[in-house]
Structures are given as C-alpha cells and as structure tokens.
Structure prediction request, 454 residues.
Amino acid sequence: MLRQTSGDITQGVIWKQLLAFFFPLWFGTFFQQLYNTVDTVVVGRFVGKTALAAVGSTGTVVNLTVGIFTGLASGAVVTIAQHYGARRGEEVSRGVHTAMLLSVIIGAVFMVCGVLLTPWVLSAMGTTAEAMPGAVLYLRVYFLGMIPNVIYNMGTGVLRAVGDSRRPLYFLIAASGCNIVLDLVLVLGFRLGVAGVAIATVASQVLSAVLVVISLMRSHGQSYQLFPRMLSIQAQPLRATLQVGTPAALQSVMYNLSNIVIQAAINTFGTDTVAAWTAYGKMDVIFWMSINAMGLALTTFAGQNYGAGKYDRLRQGVKVSAWMSAGFTVVLSAAMAVFARPILSIFTPDAQVLDIGVEMVRFLVPTYITYVLIELLSGAIRGAGKSMIPMLISVFGVCVLRLLWLFFVVPVHHTVYTVEASYPITWTVTTVAMCIYYRWGRWLAPREETGGGT
Prediction:
C-alpha cells in the first residue's frame, strides 16, 4: 500500500488551510516574478529602452507558452488531487508517471516549434523594427529551455496536488538566486545584453526542473514518488489529465492571444508606450500572482474535497477565498494607484515613459476587483473536474468580446485608454456569466451523475 501523509486538506479550519497553502504559492510566484523583474530592471537600466521594449515585446508570447503548460498541469493537479483525497494511492502513482513523461514530450514539441516560428510570431504582432532583433534573440533562447520549463511546471503541479506548496517555494528561491547572479554576471560583466538575460532565465529553469525531479524521486514510500523506470503514458490518467487540462490550456491560450492582439495595438503607439506597458506589466504582476495563487490553492482544495465527497466544505472554501481576495484586491489597488510613479521608476528613469505608465496604472488598477471571481470560481469548478464550461465562458466573455472591441472600437477611437478599457469591460461580463454557472450549473454533481469533464 502506497503511503499518504500531511497534504490532506479535507478537514480542519478552512481559512487557515487556504492561507497555509496560499502563502507558499504566493512567495513561490513572487520569486518567479522576481527574476523576471530583475531581467527587466537590468535591461532597462543597463542596456537601454530599446532593449527593454524588445524583452517586453516577448512577454505575451512567453505568457502564452507558460499558460499552456500550467493549464495542462492543472489537469494533472485536479486528477491527482481527487485520487489523493479519495485515498487511491495506485491511481496517484499512475497519474504522476504519465504526467511527467507527457511534460518531456510537450516541452520538446514547443522547443522546436518556438525556435522556428519566433520571427513570424513577432512580426505578426507588429513588433517595432528597433526592438525586433533583440526580441527574436531573447525568444529563441527562451524556447531552447522548454523541456525543463514544462518539467518544472508539471512537477510542482504534482506536489501541489498532494498539498505540498513548500518545496516548490524553495526551488523557486534557488532559481531566483541563480537568475539574479547570472543576470549581473552576463549583462554587466560579459556585456551580453538581451542574450545574457535570456541565458540566465533558461539556466534558472534548468535548476528548478532538476530540483523538482530530485524531490519527487526522493519522496520515499509516498504514492507520488517518481521512479524513472515507471515513466509511461497510460490511457486512463492521460485521458483524465487532458480532459481537465486541455480546456484550461485553451482558456489560457485564448487569454494570451487576446493579450497578443493588445500588445500589437500598444505597439502602434511607439517605443515609449511599449516600454511603459512593459513596466506596468511588471508592476501589476503583484495582483496577478496573488489572485492566481489563491486560485491554485482553491483548485487543490476543491479537488481533494470533491474526491472525498465533501461538497458543502468545497462551497464554503469558495466563499472564504472570495472574501479574502476581495479585501486584498481593494487594498492593493489603492496602494498601486498612490505609489505608481515611484514603483515604475524602478524599471526606467525615462520621464516620458513614466508619465505614460502612471496614466496606465491609475486607469486599470481600480478595475482589478472585477476579475477576482473569474479566477476563483473557475478554479473551484475545475477542481471538481468540470473545466469545459468555465473555458467556454472565459473564451466568449473575455477573449471574443475583447477581440471584437480591439478590431472594431479601437480603430475608431485610437487611444491607449480605449485599448485599456477592453480589460474591465470583458472582466465584468465574464464575472456575471461565471456567477450564473456557479449558482445554477450542475458542476458540483457527483462524477457518475454528470459523466465528468463537462
């Protein structure tokens, strides 16, 4: 019998468990964003604003690939968490070994496609001529690190599924330290510029992948212990993982494709606006990593409690997480609006870029509250294994509506404000639709009643 230990979150005080799971996830995301932010600071301060725009122009593509990986990993998180909550150790083991081999295959495919298609993608986005050479270089080096990138995302997904959010935090702290040191050495010491920050990012991803694999292999006697000789693609766990993970990945793809179109629209306003958008993106990551961490915590909480048949406890977890997230969002939005210029000046000293960035911050941060329930409700519903409807709601509510806005309204009113307005408008519509499904949809019905995966 394979053993299961301390990751059980099907009993106990809900708010304490959510926070105990949230904070390691938050700090883990913080350290992940720290080395991304250091890349931006080093490039913006020591290479120049053209290099800053180059790295910034790749951000939506990077987010697109990471979104696909984390979406697919969420399928493994949900299925493994449900088996773990139901005390089915053998099923946990099969899910782990299928997920880890799948990550290698996916990483290899993305590496080849990414290296080949990078110039075409950046050109289609309307990347400025000044930024194009640096953007191509950065993105191609980044794609060379796809296999360790996917392995890390899938491996930490496995650990989260069994309630372990601490070890992923430790791995990210180590990777952040590696990235920061290499940024300084390669950019300031060897003067490699954009290539230096890209190499530092890939090296840190390799380190984090190695650490997560070693951790899984050394989980002696646990149902999720990784044995290289047992790596195989098994039909049932693959089907279950893809059934949940594919809609989540598609949702992320659509989100990021709409953001690519937004990036293309921003590119039409010139290098200063692109640089300001890049700096703002690094600033508002505080909100995104917070709400994403709570969403991940809630997905695992929902998965384990759904597997254990504790549906009332699952709903209570949603309410608790919603109140905590709303309070945090209001406080954070106020702080970001007040301290916009000092924070943005970390990334660039350029006065024109700062003026544009401050306007962006003060327009967008008061609207963050309209997004909170999208993340939480879709996370809870996905934790119950029903990811198709949340995906469809997000695709039509956020992505399709946003694209319509960008293609039909922005050309008529060609201002940065009009581009930015696409966010709160689409978030509000999607939130209303998600609340309707959460309240009246049959997502919480037992799997055998719904057929699963719908």
